[in-house]
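Lab notes, practical 5.
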Amino acid sequence: MKCFYYLAPTLESTHQISDDLHEVGVMDWFLHVISKDEAGLKREHIHSSNYLETTDIVRDGLIGANLGFIAAVIAAGLVMLLEPFGPETPKVIYFFVVVVLTLFGAWVGGLTGIDKRNKKLKRFQGDIDAGKYLILIYAFKEQEDVIREMMREKHGEARLVAIDRRFLNPFSGLRRRRRRRAGA
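Output from the prediction step:
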């Protein structure tokens, strides 16, 4: 499964693209639009994006969990070495230290990530602020050619700006589409 990123210039164009994608078999669950005009999307019954797509909550939560785990292993090692609870400390205490600090790290990371724009969307922020609509289309392998062909034939106004081959991985980058020069 891939995620195609298209930039559309208007709400009307975005609505028509949404309708055409439904006709070729793309369900709302696999179609999200990012825009500063959320009211317009709601009015036109266009599926808008969610916090998992627009913020870095998952990415920063995973980073926080990893940092928490590292801190937890160090803390558990210190508790084991210094024996502040005595030499007969049950081994389950070390497990709980690791679990609590790892979850705390994930929580702090998630709170940090919910305040930040998704790393993959930063390059499109200028276009979104200018009033354009970023359309994310999640396509199964058998749908990819149909979607690209339909977009090419019916919606020349929408530009394919990126393809995300690993959209589930919050650390992967986008493959940016480059414009072809005239005469090249």
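Observations recorded by the TA: The radius of gyration is 22 Å. Residues 2-48+136-176 form one domain.
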